[in-house]
Design goal:
Blueprint lengths: L9 H10 L7 E3 H7 L4 H13 L3 E3 L4 E4 L1 H9 L3 H19 L2 E8 L2 E8 L14 E3 L4 H8 L3 H10 L9 H14 L2 E4 L6 E9 L5 E10 L5 H21 L13
Antiparallel strand pairs: 1-3, 2-3, 4-5, 4-9, 5-6, 7-8, 8-9
Helix pairs in contact: 2-3, 5-9, 6-8
């Protein structure tokens, strides 16, 4: 791919254009898109026009740009998370029906929990976990559940680079949280993101007992019943793992050992 004066490739610039749309925003003016992608306006205009020809972006006469349906189609049609979501959905619906609270499903991507599915109902407590949203491992019960069941080499690499921007969690604190989660078989965090909520998550384990996903709930602090919640989540996680094991696409899911 040809490079620009700045040294970045066409692929780099295309990715910056697509990634320029912030969470919850589906439409941007071309000038704002260029600014967010850190591209000259003429370059952004050319890339947007080419991407629109393939249906990856859509443009309007007023100069606005939105993500195209073709992009959504391609991402979802062959996404490895599709089999995971299909395997998990019946179990997530059962848990939500019983709790009437938020239920979420996450995978580990780098040093973050990436949420691939979420169910919520009117009246549920606040939940910062959004579909396609990310949370740092140390501030989410899903992240802790995922990391605590990764290979030692992955955990060591994570702890070596870990810093808490808020300055509240040390690597020693985090090591203790991961050890506790591995010992108990679940992770819990109370009031870390929202002071009135409690997050509980369990790992979905592969045949080597490594977490390929985490199933979690967010409930009000006053309603925490670990003795009832944890067994229900663990039973559901085992069911998800069985369905993934029976799926021809289960090989798409793995631990982060290759990081």
């Amino acid at each position: 791919m040809a490079n620009s004066v700045s040294g970045d490739s066409v692929v780099d610039r295309v990715v910056r254009v697509i990634a320029a749309f912030p969470e919850g925003v589906s439409v941007l003016q071309l000038s704002e898109l260029a600014d967010r992608a850190q591209l000259p306006l003429t370059t952004a205009h050319r890339l947007v026009r080419q991407l629109a020809q393939h249906g990856l972006l859509e443009t309007s006469a007023g100069g606005s740009v939105r993500l195209g349906l073709r992009l959504w189609e391609l991402v979802n049609r062959n996404s490895p998370t599709l089999a995971l979501r299909q395997a998990a959905m019946p179990f997530m619906e059962d848990i939500q029906h019983v709790l009437n609270q938020n239920v979420n499903l996450a995978v580990l991507d780098g040093w973050e929990a990436l949420f691939v599915e979420r169910l919520s109902r009117r009246g549920s407590v606040a939940n910062r976990a959004q579909i396609a949203g990310r949370l740092a491992v140390h501030v989410s019960s899903a992240g802790l559940a995922l990391m605590s069941f990764q290979p030692r080499s992955v955990q060591a690499a994570y702890l070596e680079q870990f810093t808490d921007p808020a300055g509240k969690v040390t690597p020693e604190d985090l090591r203790a949280l991961l050890t506790e989660a591995a010992h108990q078989g679940y992770a819990q965090l109370a009031g870390v993101i929202d002071p009135d909520t409690w997050g509980i998550a369990v790992p979905v384990l592969d045949g080597k007992k490594r977490a390929v996903a985490a199933l979690g709930v967010v409930v009000p602090l006053r309603e925490v019943r670990l003795q009832a919640l944890v067994p229900a989540l663990q039973t559901a996680a085992r069911g998800i793992a069985r369905r993934l094991g029976d799926s021809s696409t289960s090989a798409s899911f793995h631990s982060s050992e290759s990081l």
